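Supplementary notes for students who missed Thursday's class. We covered one full example, reproduced here. Read the sequence, then the structure, then the short commentary at the end.
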Amino acid sequence: MTPELLIFDCDGVLIDSEALVCNADAEELTRIGYPITGEEMARRFAGVPGAVALAELEREMGRPLPEGFHARCEAKAMALYRSELRALPRAAETIAALPFPRCVASSSRPAKLALGLVETGLYELFYPHLFSTVLVANGKPAPDLFLHAAAALGATTAGCLVIEDSIAGVTAARAAGMRIVGFTGGSHCGADHGERLRAAGAVAIVPGYAELPAAIAALD
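Structure (token representation):
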């Protein structure tokens, strides 16, 4: 395949942030009386906009979250980004060598998206083509963000290839009419993660960046 556009998710694909953030969110939720593990948070909400995930948790709890809860979680995540965040191994050199237009389409808000890429040295690989969920009415698993990115960069949906680690992201890309390579290199990915991504619609699965160029070349 010769993609018109490579669309990368950010969290769990470019930066190894899902486990960091999900563990931090789980600690905060447990502290207020909703016991949950970071692994369960990642399994249920990876790729989903934070506000959407918290709204779902409020419905389950039957009460609103404490005032300022979302802001505290975001602040904690930003602090972790500055102290512990790393890029996925071989991301920078692999992406730089791929001869296709590229962008990022992320469920993160703009400041968090930019910080994650800056802290890991990936920002310049993608700037200015950074698309945040705030640009569209409906975040993943709706297709809106991927459709917005393709339209902004003049690519057809059939010509886009999405690199995603989340069920929500794969579902969104499939609904947009795009093909998806499922990525399982993040520290949050369990042994069955690739199978789950394939079941959701990914046409190929890669465990890391070393395998990505060959996976792209093998697609019809």
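Commentary. The chain is about 45% helix and 10% strand. Residues 18-84 form a domain with the DNA polymerase; domain 1 fold (CATH 1.10.150.240). If anything here is unclear, bring it to office hours.
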